[in-house]
Amino acid sequence: MGKPIPYGRQHITAADIRAVVGVLQSDWLTQGPNIERFEQAVAAYCGVKHAVAACNATAALHLACMALDLGPGDWLWTSPNTFVASANCSLYCGAQVDFVDIDPKTYNLSVELLARKLEQAKIAGKLPKVVAPVDFSGQSCDMREIARLAEQYGFRIIEDASHAIGADYLGGKVGNCRYADITIFSFHPVKIITTGEGGMALTNDVELQRKLARLRTHGITRDPKLMSAGANEGAWYYEQIDLGYNYRMTDLQAALGLSQLTRVDEFVQRRRKLAARYTKALRNLPVKTPWQNGEGESAWHLYVINVDPERTGKTRREVFDFMRESGILVNVHYIPVHLQPYYRRMEFGPGDFPASEAYYQGAMSLPLYFDLTEEKQDYVIAKLTEALS
Ligand SMILES: *Cc1c(COP(=O)(O)O)cnc(C)c1O
Hints:
Number of domains: 2
Bound molecules: pyridoxal-5'-phosphate
Number of helices: 14
Mean pLDDT: 97
Helix content: 25-40%
Largest sheet: 7 strands, mixed
CATH architecture of the largest domain: 3-Layer(aba) Sandwich
């Protein structure tokens, strides 16, 4: 049967390899010239002013929370249908987390529920400082409406676009920060482009960019305007003015990212084509295929179907196990974050976010990546058809 078909994987070319080897042969393995080049290239691609590379998106989310001064007594709200990192970043800062349930059509945070929850939170005096919507599967959230609510209620926005580099939204690229204070990308190998481990925080606010960059390197500055002693101490001199971290990306990773970025549109086009092919092939099967809101175009990090036992007579578990036994490494995104044992200890539990929980019962991600051949995709479709019959 050959090698199993993963749900996602990277695409590496000879040019990618040359780029990384070139760095190994250079003077700088970290903090070299490729970091800034990569940051500027991503910023230019997205149409945003500033970008700050980090060692992964989880670190970039943490930096974003710190840059927005999230701390004890503050709240961050996010979607339960996400990777745990979108919520954990708030806890790293000593702030608290709450969730806004999803829209059962897009599987993104529901703006109707957000508006309702904000109204109640205002009365209770517990408005969030930050809302972190997640562009699930690569489709933008209703960012325009979220930004309108931010204006009305005075919260800041971290858009977790880990799935969504290359996606379009209302005539612009996701990452342009038109409707977000900070947008985050992940470059993990299953995402759209990769640097091995890697992430980035994008913003149009130069003050936020400076804070993000400083916190990425221990909270250290060499800017005389920020130092108490000024510049006269000597060329060696620096000051630590905040408690930061070492969240830097290496120059090796940035070189790989730069090389990958030249193919981002190609990657996304291929994913869109394969997604359309799934949707067409699955239209007569008793499963729900992904709904698109028409406000842009997804980057298609994930292609998620939903298995409803009422319609199929098969549980998701049965379909999932059948696919895995057929050498197809389907996956599930996501177990609702509030149901994780760590979050249950904070008083969250089943029934809190029913749309996310109902979605989770049937969700299954099919293989989707640049190198997935139509032949392999047809095999996935055939096996799924068999599993559901
Ligand atoms: C992958 C992912 C992250 C974390 O990315 P890393 O680069 O692995 O730290 C955060 N949020 C979402 C929604 C993700 O999918």
